[in-house]
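Key result, reporting period 2: structure in, sequence out.
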């Protein structure tokens, strides 16, 4: 009886990510730490980044389209021009991140933390922002979720 329970438990365990895997589309970097890394232009589309940390990293021009970054941390990360289209970013923390000119088309940002984030010129067309923390986020020149409204200069915490 003990052997049967052990075998069942072994088959249901979740495999942990290999954080040394190269950064490429579809990589599984769940619970990995890449803080202060230079990851400019990296292609992580459709990657699994749940609970990963990229705080203070340089990720300008990165492609995270279709990625699952649930509860990932991009605190004070430079992500200018990054692409997050169709990504799942629920509860992701972008506190003080540079997301200027980033694309969030059809991205799920529910309960995300965008506190003091720079979203100047970002494209939020079709993004879901329900319960997101937008306090002091700079939306100047951003395309709002309706895909039509361009936020005026000085749009802090909301699109005006």
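The corresponding designed sequence is given below.
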């Amino acid at each position: 009886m003990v052997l049967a329970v052990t075998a069942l438990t072994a088959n249901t365990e979740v495999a942990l990510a290999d954080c040394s895997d190269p950064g490429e589309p579809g990589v599984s970097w769940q619970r990995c730490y890449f803080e202060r890394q230079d990851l400019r232009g990296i292609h992580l589309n459709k990657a699994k980044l749940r609970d990963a940390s990229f705080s203070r990293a340089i990720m300008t021009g990165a492609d995270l389209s279709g990625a699952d970054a649930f509860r990932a941390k991009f605190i004070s990360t430079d992500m200018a021009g990054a692409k997050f289209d169709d990504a799942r970013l629920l509860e992701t923390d972008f506190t003080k991140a540079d997301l200027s000119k980033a694309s969030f088309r059809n991205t799920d940002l529910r309960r995300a933390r965008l506190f003091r984030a720079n979203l100047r010129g970002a494209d939020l067309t079709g993004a879901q922002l329900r319960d997101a923390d937008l306090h002091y986020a700079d939306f100047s020149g951003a395309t709002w979720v309706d895909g039509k409204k361009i936020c005026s200069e000085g749009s802090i915490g909301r699109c005006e």
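The radius of gyration is 17 Å. Helices lie at 2-12. This case is discussed further under Risks and Mitigation.
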